[in-house]
């Protein structure tokens, strides 16, 4: 099996919600196409370029309005990148409805929201359910140049016609949890965080201090999303009329006299806070996706503020979470359009359980067992956003995922670790097979589950 060669900061991407596949990925694709257009030689074209047209397919077409995909595409074509766009960019664009000029080999072309369309009929021949096509057209609509992109999950994009990028060799080859465990048991004294950081340095050319600084940036962005969510209140955007709950939940947490209820309330409040910020289209961290962006920050917040763990413990925990997320991306998927919510909140819970176990100083066996339990008990979870908005059931599902992550850690740290029956690799295989067999209407199309029953009843 090929080794994992994905950067930590492709897994942990900072950008606007509410969906990494539907906002961050399409924004990156739009920016990439804009960059390509700037270098085109228009003199060889069979026509005069007039506009840039974008066509969304598959899940992007089915839920694009609710997920903000059209505005994310427009922002990317307008020159914005997820990493540095305004926090509230997807709030402001619908009001402004701008028309952007795009450099074109010495000339200029234009695009606006009216140039972005959705094709919900083309489904069966798609190579990937999150597909979008950019077209440079003339005044009569004739295509002069085009490019297809796939938003493959977690904010990552792929061009089917592009050659495979050169990937640097990593010092520690692993593609499964079993192989990762073998590296740790080889007697060379390596720790999990050292393996993750050294591989990252080899892949990106960054120094160890640079990688550690990047991890700190990720943790800070997660914490910021929680703090913003705890301070906000009112109705979330969209037609559902859903009100934020995190601030009220946090007040209840601070007032409750029951010690047994405090931790549960804290987990819920923190997870809801980040998930509500995501639902508002504000900046979050993909962990592993925007739709699951409340789970890991909730656990990290509890580790820092309730457990009083040092920052180094959070960084080491984040490396364990990264290992889990990278393994799932490598061997299955984290895209709701491919495997349902088991690949989003399920994987987020698995990552969070591993983070907590590692941050608390437990062995690799406990880290793996905690991650496996959290993933196992999300198997089969569908992705059925009501009206296509990442609100119902997505926001509360983040809180449920955080609680399951904590309980998975409790069970793993309390059992005899050698008595744990299911391996992490086995759970990932099961998740991939379940996602493959899952009916399309339960995979981020808003055609089944709660998305259907909320409309039909």
UniProtKB/TrEMBL annotation:
Catalytic activity: L-serine = pyruvate + NH4(+)
Enzyme kind, highest EC tier: lyase
InterPro entries reported for this sequence: ASB_dom_sf, Fe-S_L-Ser, Fe-S_L-Ser_mono, Ser_deHydtase-like_asu, Ser_deHydtase_bsu
Gene Ontology MF terms: L-serine ammonia-lyase activity
Pathway: Carbohydrate biosynthesis; gluconeogenesis
EC number: 4.3.1.17
Needed cofactors: [4Fe-4S] cluster
Pfam family name, one: SDH_beta
Family: Belongs to the iron-sulfur dependent L-serine dehydratase family.
NCBIfam families referenced in this protein's UniProt entry, alphabetically: sda_mono
Name under which the protein is recorded: L-serine dehydratase
């Amino acid at each position: 099996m090929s080794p994992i060669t994905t950067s930590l900061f492709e897994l942990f991407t900072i950008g606007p919600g509410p969906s990494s596949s539907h906002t961050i990925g399409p924004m990156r694709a739009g920016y990439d196409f804009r960059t390509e257009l700037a270098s085109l030689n228009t003199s060889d074209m069979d026509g005069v370029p007039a506009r840039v047209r974008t066509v969304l397919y598959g899940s992007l077409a089915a839920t694009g309005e609710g997920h903000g995909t059209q505005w994310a595409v427009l922002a990317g074509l307008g020159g914005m990148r997820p990493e540095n766009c305004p926090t509230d960019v997807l709030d402001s664009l619908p009001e402004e409805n701008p028309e952007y000029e795009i450099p074109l080999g010495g000339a200029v072309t234009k695009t606006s929201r009216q140039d972005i369309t959705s094709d919900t009929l083309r489904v069966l021949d798609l190579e990937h359910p999150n597909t979008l096509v950019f077209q440079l057209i003339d005044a009569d609509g004739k295509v002069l140049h085009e490019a297809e992109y796939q938003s493959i999950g977690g904010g990552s994009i792929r061009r089917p016609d592009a050659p495979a990028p050169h990937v640097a060799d990593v010092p520690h080859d692993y593609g499964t949890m079993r192989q990762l465990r073998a590296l740790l048991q080889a007697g060379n004294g390596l720790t999990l965080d050292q393996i993750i950081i050294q591989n990252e340095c080899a892949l990106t050319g960054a120094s160890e201090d640079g990688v550690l600084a990047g991890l700190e940036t990720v943790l800070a962005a997660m914490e910021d999303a929680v703090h913003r969510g705890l301070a906000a209140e009112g109705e979330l955007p969209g037609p559902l009329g859903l009100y934020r709950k995190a601030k009220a939940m946090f007040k209840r947490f601070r007032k409750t006299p029951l010690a047994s209820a405090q931790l549960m309330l804290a987990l819920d409040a923190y997870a809801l806070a980040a998930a509500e910020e995501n639902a508002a289209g504000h900046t979050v961290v993909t962990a592993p996706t925007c739709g699951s962006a409340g789970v890991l920050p909730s656990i990290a917040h509890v580790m820092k503020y309730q457990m009083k763990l040092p920052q180094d413990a959070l960084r080491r925990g984040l490396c364990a979470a990264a290992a889990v997320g990278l393994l799932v991306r490598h061997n299955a998927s984290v895209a709701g359009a491919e495997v349902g919510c088991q690949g989003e909140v399920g994987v987020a819970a698995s990552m969070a359980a591993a983070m907590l176990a590692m941050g608390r100083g437990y062995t690799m066996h406990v880290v793996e067992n905690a991650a496996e339990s959290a993933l196992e008990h999300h198997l089969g979870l569908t992705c059925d956003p009501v009206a296509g908005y990442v609100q119902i059931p997505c926001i509360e599902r983040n809180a449920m995922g955080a609680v399951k992550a904590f309980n998975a850690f409790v069970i793993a740290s309390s059992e005899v670790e050698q008595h744990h029956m299911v391996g992490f690799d086995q759970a990932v295989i099961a998740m991939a097979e379940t996602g493959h067999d899952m009916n399309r209407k339960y995979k981020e199309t808003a055609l089944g589950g709660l998305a259907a029953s909320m409309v039909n009843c």
